[in-house]
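Q: What does the assembly look like in three dimensions?
Context provided by user:
Components: two
Sequences:
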Amino acid sequence: MKEANDYLLINLLGTDEQQLRLARVKDGMRAAGIETAIVRSNTNIYYLTGRVFRGYVYISLGLDEPLYFVRQPSTLRAMPGKKIYHVRKPEEIAAILAEEGMPVGGRVALELDAMPYAEALRIAKAMGMDAPSENISPVLRNARAVKTACELSKLRTSGEKQTLVYERIPHLYQEGMSDIEFQIEIERASRLEGCLGIFRIGGSEMELFMGNVLTGENADTPSPYDFAMGGAGADPSLPVGADGTVIKPGIPVMVDVNGNYTGYMTDMTRCFYTGSLSERAGKAVRLSIAICDELAAMMKPGAKASDLYERALALATEAGMEEFFMGHRYHAGFVGHGIGIEVNELPVLAPRSKDILEAGNVIAVEPKFVIPGIGAAGVENTYIVTADGGQCITNAPLDPVRLD
Amino acid sequence: MKEANDYLLINLLGTDEQQLRLARVKDGMRAAGIETAIVRSNTNIYYLTGRVFRGYVYISLGLDEPLYFVRQPSTLRAMPGKKIYHVRKPEEIAAILAEEGMPVGGRVALELDAMPYAEALRIAKAMGMDAPSENISPVLRNARAVKTACELSKLRTSGEKQTLVYERIPHLYQEGMSDIEFQIEIERASRLEGCLGIFRIGGSEMELFMGNVLTGENADTPSPYDFAMGGAGADPSLPVGADGTVIKPGIPVMVDVNGNYTGYMTDMTRCFYTGSLSERAGKAVRLSIAICDELAAMMKPGAKASDLYERALALATEAGMEEFFMGHRYHAGFVGHGIGIEVNELPVLAPRSKDILEAGNVIAVEPKFVIPGIGAAGVENTYIVTADGGQCITNAPLDPVRLD
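A: Here is the predicted structure of the complete assembly.
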């Protein structure tokens, strides 16, 4: 476990790792003409410090290190020889900056894609502005799209643990189980392996519990969320995923369950079945694996994200499966997405994406099919973009596994 | 399960129930001088329609019923004889309103406490405003604070199911378990009973997985989240709750796990132990029960929320337990909170709360203690405010239950 003393440091990343991340953020700030920024979201504070606290990280191009304004926990400490500032409200920040001889009153960028309107307005006013103007969200999103070696290590660990759990899945099935009952056993196995459970998604419209297990017609129920797959869910208050459908022979069960073991998530999907798997489902899974392989080979720095989507669609079309690609009654508009602290990071593999792949991107590729009368079939893997192509970090066996 | 046809209706509440809720919202709008509002958050769309969809609910004092602008799923239908509008982006709303002969260009209130800044600005501009001005968030928060009979029924069901699970908890313990391992078995039992898992919390700063199980010194670790209790958690990316501490004889294990079985959550906490429970812990639990009883008796329409907090604090002080009340190294600033679709609704039982209790408020009361060397002790119950006082809907046995 943690060392009691070190655990109180506000920067759990260490100086070098933090500087690597800050350099990426500051490059983005320079390119966007942003001089200073205040970061408040849990995800971005975690990115910048390796921990979640309640307060603000103040980044200025003129400062080597960030300033920390901490509301809670008040026990946090700076690195030796440095300071952090305890505040009760954002209005105290400007006075502290003035006391410390920092410039106050210029424009300060905020996370305008994430921060609630009323809060952004309040912080802007506290910093002497009439209203927020500059948006640091895209800068942070771009910085986070290219992972550092430390982040990749956390992602690899998540992939390894998620793989261990997925290899155990066939032992979790009992005859007569519904999709929800099966999912619950996978959730438990994941948690026992160290899964943190929480599923971080950018954007206030998105909600999911621990993952999505789909079987049969339920896979063709459109959901309001922008995930690759839908499902009615167990209740109209959370209309996504398993709905209580009993697992039937020959019909695939698609398992896409939370891989957050380290604060960094991997994404993996596999299909399982009882009896003899429907031939069409088996074919769809093989096509999905082939698309993953082709996209992995294309996953080199400089590749266009939109080209990867188009290639996946072309392969599905060649196989006569376009109608079922990424859904049937509803088609998701992407075949892959960046992943890390959140499940929907950059780059996005979508037709209108302008993203260009870079070494260190981490991308989940999920070419999935929904076939009427059969349900969902396909796989998903998480890859690190390298000069040699995508390196897969979710390595459970790809072929559908028989449960009974 | 659901009827396929009815399930496609955008208003799953039925006309009467929706009108009850709308009447509360419209009263609030009139009091706040708001003529029209656009609601977009999942929680408030669920409140207004009984389902979650991706889109907008347009409420106008001049219209008997809301208008629905739906992005997804596109399969949703209006009630017979009514219309809904499918849109791809908010910019289409104004044109549709104009086509339908509705007034466009006036001020439209938005959920400014919840909606991200950039999105609020975009919708305001789409509606012909320079910037958002009026905030519908407080109106909706106040409306939701008083539950309808239908909502109370969902809350009672959650309380009954959560009680069944809590009664099963002693059978889930095995010798040598850590707090996390114990929590995982409680999570599984909850899910098997129908718990939806998702834990909705207002405010972007708050995060929790399925609940909080605390034992020993870990209970005294301050957390950045504004929950009654803290804990280090398993990882600095989610610093709250169980941290892997092994359950030890005599030391209470405080269990506060998700009661969301219906889209409406109840909140219940109980203590468990192995061996013989520390006398101080037993005393703290008895004091907590006594405070709950006193507060329940005060829970009548017209009571001041702040008086309930003060009474709880006075009882803790009389018992010489003030130092440990609602935490030790860090003290939470409240002893109870409204609960429903989210875990942090109105009213709030806190010293500076201006809330006045009304019949139909649903309040979780959690007078808890953190004692150094022992850990967390106390109970929590969820009550409906009635003319006769608080009616408890979380009815698992109150006394600490031995596990071994």
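Follow-up: The mean pLDDT of chain B is 96.
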